[in-house]
Specification:
β4 (82-87) and β5 form a beta hairpin. The chain is of the alpha+beta class. It has 4 helices and 12 strands; from the N terminus they run αββββββββββββααα. Strands 1, 2, 3, 4, 5, 6, 7, 8, 9, 10, 11 and 12 form a 12-stranded antiparallel β-sheet that branches. The protein has helices at 3-13, 189-194, 199-208, 215-227; strands at 42-43, 57-63, 68-77, 82-87, 90-95, 99-105, 113-117, 132-137, 141-151, 159-160, 169-178, 181-184. It is elongated, with a radius of gyration of 19 Å.
Length: 229
């Protein structure tokens, strides 16, 4: 069986609903020498309402103390900044403060989705970016995807929600990172291109008719920039 076919079969098998006991280890895909973390995980008193992805995805968690949790089903709680992790028959909570980075293997994409701490990058002070964000492209330039939930407050600007809010809105933001400075992707093509300061990239974007409001195009733009010498 080819590696790509095997991965596809695994992802399909993970797409089922979790109504019964979920295996915490998948010997078909993950290394048998997986190390289970010694970090203290707590029992989850209540399931979070707002996740980066509502699906339970299998993946790996790498902790600041050097330990790791390999091949566990998990979801990231956007509001509480914690991972909900299925261990045995229980759902445990792992606070984001223990986590260095994590990755999972979603059914929709045939490659790992990596999440890193927002503290690694310099955001605008008013951006209110915290917790973990998805690293879509890595290299001299990076592409980040941030997902947040907001509750409108009368006529004022949106406010970060808590678990008791009922009227909420989902917000997805993309950020370009060069020299560790994160700049939000805007509607203006010129302003986005100014982040890179590359005439060659400007020509490529215009000739290829790439758009900054399309995730696939954004990834192609950053990938092309990283390929330049």
């Amino acid at each position: 069986m080819s590696k790509s076919l095997g991965l596809f079969i695994l992802l399909i098998s993970l797409s089922g609903s979790l109504k019964a006991q979920v295996p915490t280890y998948n010997s078909f895909f993950f290394n048998e020498e997986a190390v289970e973390s010694k970090v203290y995980v707590i029992n989850l008193t209540s399931i979070g309402r707002y996740h980066f992805d509502d699906t339970w995805n299998a993946g790996n968690i790498f902790l600041k103390n050097g330990d790791s949790l390999i091949a566990y089903y998990m979801r990231y709680d956007l509001v509480r900044n914690q991972l909900e992790v299925i261990i045995g028959n229980d759902i445990k909570a792992l606070n984001g403060g223990f986590i260095d980075w994590f990755e999972w293997f979603s059914v929709e994409r045939l490659r790992p989705e990596k999440f890193v701490s927002a503290q690694l990058f310099q955001f605008d002070e008013q951006s209110e970016i915290r917790g973990f964000i998805q690293l879509l492209e890595d290299g001299d330039a990076k592409l980040l995807k941030c997902k947040r939930m907001y509750a409108p407050r009368e006529a004022t600007s949106p406010t970060i929600i808590n678990d008791t809010d009922e009227d909420i809105q989902a917000l997805e933001e993309y950020y370009l990172v060069v020299n560790n400075v994160a700049v939000e992707v805007t509607r203006g093509k010129r302003k986005n291109l100014d982040v890179f300061k590359s005439r060659e990239l400007n020509r490529y974007v215009n000739q290829s008719n790439l758009k900054f409001n399309n995730e696939r195009d954004l990834k192609e733009i950053v990938e092309y920039y990283n390929s330049l010498e």
